[in-house]
Amino acid sequence: MDVVGGFRRSMKLAQVIESDLNRLFVFRTEDGYSVEAVHYRGDTLCVSTQVGCPVRCLFCASGKEGLLRNLSEEEILSQVESVKKILPVSRVAFAGIGDPLANWREVKGSFLKLREMGIKASFYTTGFPLENLRELLHLPHNGVSVSIHSLNPDTRKHLMPFSGPLEKLVKFLKEELPRLSKRKRKKVSLAYLILKGVNDSDRDLEALSRLALDLDVGVTLLYYNKVGPFEPPSEEEYERAFLFLKGKGIRVTLSTRFRKDKIGGCGTLTVGKVA
Q1: HSE-up of 236 (CA within 13 Å, CB side)?
Q2: What is the pTM of this model?
Q3: pLDDT tens-digit profile of 132-144?
Q4: How many folded domains does the chain comprise?
Q5: What domain range includes position 177?
Q6: Half-sphere exposure of residue 81, counting CA atoms within 13 Å on the CB side?
Q7: For residue 230, what is the domain's CATH number?
Q8: Main-chain phi, psi angles of 185, to 5 degrees
Q9: Distance in Å from the first CA to the final CA of the chain
Q10: What is the rounded distance in angstroms from the CA atom of residue 45 to the CA atom of residue 24?
Q11: Contacts of 239 (CB under 8 A, 6+ apart)
């Protein structure tokens, strides 16, 4: 528990919602918010790091209300501890509500404690602040996916209105990734969410492939769960994008069925005010 202004702040498990694939855990904070975590693949827990999200991506339900507050290290860890009482957790993904780099002190503290518990951790982030991304890349993580989603600055700004500038992120990655060992660089990927008619043209995919090859990293090609104003690609269009990138010699990871599930799939986690 976190001591704030003389009071202890805690999180309690309020509800569990199950599908055939995932279990969605709804936690209630002491100040009346609800945040969500997802258990999937039998051993992995996707945790939230903030109440809301400052980036406010148009394709994601988590940032609809903006950022309400950060979660404390104890609140982040309590998600893991609560679920571990019910289900096995050997991996944690910092990929739920919020951007882990925007709450880096608390996230880093929870990551180090998870390491002590023998739990591996991976991260999804928009990459800012860049100094936090630099520190993360050199930590003993199990994977870092940096959200790109478009290499057209105007399109990216529209999709991710409060993320940092694309040109600064690309420049940083070109300078920092060569400092990583080959083994560490293999654990870094560019996250790219396919949106029908928005970022899925051959020109878009060509730009993505050039950057991935230049950085010598893979691509995490995400499938869109419709929670916003866009349309998902058909399975054939999604496969076409995969084959396009694969044909360029790029390591490509696709969204699993767990990430596509309507219960707890990517971009579907939400924040509530329950008191």
Answers
A1: 0
A2: 0.94
A3: 999 999 999 999 9
A4: 1
A5: 2-273
A6: 12
A7: 3.20.20.70
A8: -65, -30
A9: 20
A10: 10
A11: none
